[in-house]
Amino acid sequence: QVQLEESGGGLVQAGGSLRLSCAASGRIFSIHIMAWFRQAPGKERDFVAAVSSSGRLTYYADSVKGRFTISRDTAKNTVALQMDSLKPEDTATYYCAKSDRTGWVVDPTRLTFGSWGQGTQVTVSS
């Protein structure tokens, strides 16, 4: 069983940047697709970005494309989300998740994610 723990959230002004990190335990972490999701108050949890097991393939929601960058360090068992040009609408709790799938897919938003972290809060002020 993989355990995931997010960090790096906080309060930032619009236009600013934050870097989220997800630390994973478990030796099988390196072979699975990893992703970030977010959930704003009163809204459903939304997909943000995914990264392949190698780190070479990525996929982003249209709302963050060009502003956010997902990456992973398999040696350190971490996944990061660099968030630039933040907007107030990016305010949400951000979650790290591990897919049950190892191979890359065309649309990672359709995957099942069986392991989740507890989330880290990101607040963007206008």
Q: If you average the pLDDT, what whole number results?
A: 94
Distance between the termini: 40 Å
SS elements, strand count: 11
- Based on CA atoms alone, the radius of gyration comes out at 13 Å
Q: What does the main sheet amount to?
A: 7 strands, mixed
Helix share bin: under 10%
Strand content: over 45%
Unreliable runs: none
What attributes does this structure have?
11 strands; seven-stranded mixed beta sheet; globular; four-stranded antiparallel beta sheet; 126 residues; mainly beta
Describe this structure in words.
This protein has 126 residues and is mostly beta strands. It is built from no helices and eleven strands. Strands 2, 4, 5, 6, 9, 10 and 11 form a seven-stranded mixed β-sheet that branches. Strands 1-3-8-7 form a four-stranded antiparallel β-sheet, with no helix packed on it. A hairpin with a 4-residue loop joins strand 7 (68-73) and strand 8. It is globular and about 40 Å long. The mean pLDDT is 94.
